[in-house]
Design brief:
Layout (H helix, E strand, L loop, with lengths): L1 H19 L15 E4 L16 H9 L2 H12 L19 E7 L4 E8 L6 E8 L15 E2 L5 H4 L4 E2 L9 E6 L3 E14 L2 E15 L8 E3 L7 H4 L1 H4 L2 E5 L10 E5 L9 E6 L8 E3 L1 E6 L2 E2 L16 E4 L6 E3 L1 H13 L6 E3 L2 E6 L9 E5 L2 E4 L6 E3 L5 E4 L1 E3 L8 E4 L7 E6 L4 E6 L4
Parallel strand pairs: 3-10, 4-9, 17-26, 18-25
Antiparallel strand pairs: 1-2, 1-12, 2-3, 2-8, 5-8, 6-7, 7-8, 8-9, 11-12, 11-27, 13-14, 13-28, 14-17, 15-16, 15-21, 19-20, 20-24, 21-22, 23-24, 27-28
Length: 438
């Protein structure tokens, strides 16, 4: 009887061990089969610098140093182009700061690709590329790869195309990127795998030559609204819907997530309309109606926030800009009201012009962004950033570049961290809900 009881106990313990899978298997946070999102300098990222910055605030400042060029570019894209001026080079945008695992080709080759909501086309460095990083896509080993001919409609959707005047040939195109870089590529098709989904015949640029240092080292996936974007090329699969949760810059692992398609999206989420600008249809415009600091509604003239397709003015949600940038008068009014609630001296730190003693952080007022049908009260970690010593806390926003195209307000990725941002292009809605994904 005693022997039978002991045997039964061992069997139960073995069952529990197997069912929990925790007896001998070690958890590897960097080994995941889902479509996770990680900051480009996270621990699991292959781009983690060998000599990290002395502090994460310095890392943010370094990344944000390219924001003015990006915001200027986004503003210039949104502005109308005179008919006498040729179409400029395509997606001249700065490098993004979040990456996903993706596979390209058959069999799939793993690439860590930057996410960008203000870009449409995908770009991947290919074998034989001059100036590219050491990790490239070996197109000659993929059984499903093929270049696209100039006669195909996809080629006509690109700018900067180089095609023979007589006869046919591969669709070659050039792009400027980040203000200081450019590349040439061959428009191609192959299977793109995201998570467990394989998207056959995905059109992308197979990069041949790179000049400058801003090109994403392993490629970029465009999540914009244009014809070459992921949403357009996978509409039958994802129905024009996606969402993401961006983890904090401090998060080491693939703890964020990119959800594609209507399944698994939050059901109870507040939304605001997505607006369309015919001059720049790829950008995700929303109607920012006001800004509150604490309980004070900042006095901002309505025309400074108004959406105007003819000039490109308005507000966009962007995953590639690091810190939120308001046009100068909007930022000044918001900053000045914020300062009224802070005691002690005010100092500057890099791009941040409103820094104060961290001991006064508890009295720092919350900032609420008011959109049509939606109020977003920013968590403290999305509003303040600390100096390396921890002695200063700074308002993590800045003014847009003060130039002729300064008409665009940009809600950037630092203010989007630990939020579920839902993009529903079918119903033209943007949803926002709190979600911790660190």
């Amino acid at each position: 009887m005693e022997h039978s009881s002991t045997l039964a106990t061992l069997i139960i313990l073995l069952f529990i061990c197997l069912s929990t899978c925790s007896c001998n298997a070690a958890f590897d946070p960097c080994s995941s089969s889902d479509l996770s999102v990680i900051h480009i300098y996270g621990k699991c990222s292959p781009f983690n610098p060998s000599k990290p910055s002395s502090s994460w605030v310095n890392t943010v400042l370094n990344m944000a140093s390219s924001d003015p060029e990006r915001v200027s570019y986004l503003s210039s894209l949104a502005a109308p182009k005179p008919t006498s001026v040729p179409i400029g080079p395509g997606q001249i945008i700065n490098i993004g700061n979040y990456i996903v695992r993706a596979k390209i080709g058959t069999p799939g080759q793993l690439m860590f690709m930057v996410l960008d909501t203000s870009n449409d086309a995908a770009w991947i460095p290919c074998s034989g590329c001059t100036g590219c990083s050491s990790t490239v896509f070996a197109s000659n080993t993929s059984s499903s790869y093929g270049p696209l001919d100039c006669s195909l409609p996809e080629c006509a959707q690109l700018s900067g195309v180089s095609c023979p005047t007589i006869g046919s040939g591969s669709c070659l195109f050039n792009r400027s990127y980040g203000g200081d870089s450019s590349f040439s590529a061959t428009l191609s098709r192959d299977t793109l795998t995201l998570g467990n989904d394989a998207i056959p015949n995905y059109a992308f640029g197979c990069i041949n030559t790179v000049s400058g240092g801003s090109i994403p080292p392993q490629g970029l996936i465009g999540l914009g609204r244009g014809s070459m974007s992921l949403l357009s090329q996978s509409r039958s699969l994802y129905s024009g819907i996606f969402s993401y949760c961006l983890p904090s810059f401090k998060s080491y692992y693939f703890s964020g997530s990119l959800k594609l398609g209507p399944l698994g999206q939050p059901k109870n989420i507040k939304t605001t309309p997505l607006l369309k600008n015919p001059h720049r249809p790829s950008l995700y415009y929303v109607n920012l109606t006001g800004i509150s600091v604490g309980r004070v509604n900042v006095p901002i003239p309505a025309e400074l926030l108004a959406f105007d397709p003819s000039t490109g003015a308005g507000t966009i949600i962007d995953s590639g800009t690091v810190i939120t940038r308001f046009i100068q008068p909007v930022y000044n009014a918001t900053r000045d009201e914020f300062r009224k609630h802070i005691t002690g001296p005010i100092s500057s730190l890099g791009a941040f012009d409103t820094c104060f003693a961290a001991t006064n952080e508890e009295i720092a007022p919350p900032i609420t962004l008011h959109f049509t049908g939606l109020d977003l009260k920013l968590p403290t970690e999305n509003t303040l950033i600390h100096s390396s010593s921890g002695s200063l806390a700074c308002l993590a926003m800045a003014a847009a570049p003060n130039n002729v195209n300064s008409v665009l307000n940009v809600i950037a990725n630092l203010q989007q961290q630990n939020l579920r941002i839902l993009f529903d292009t079918v119903n033209s809605q943007l949803g926002i809900a709190r979600e911790l994904c660190n």
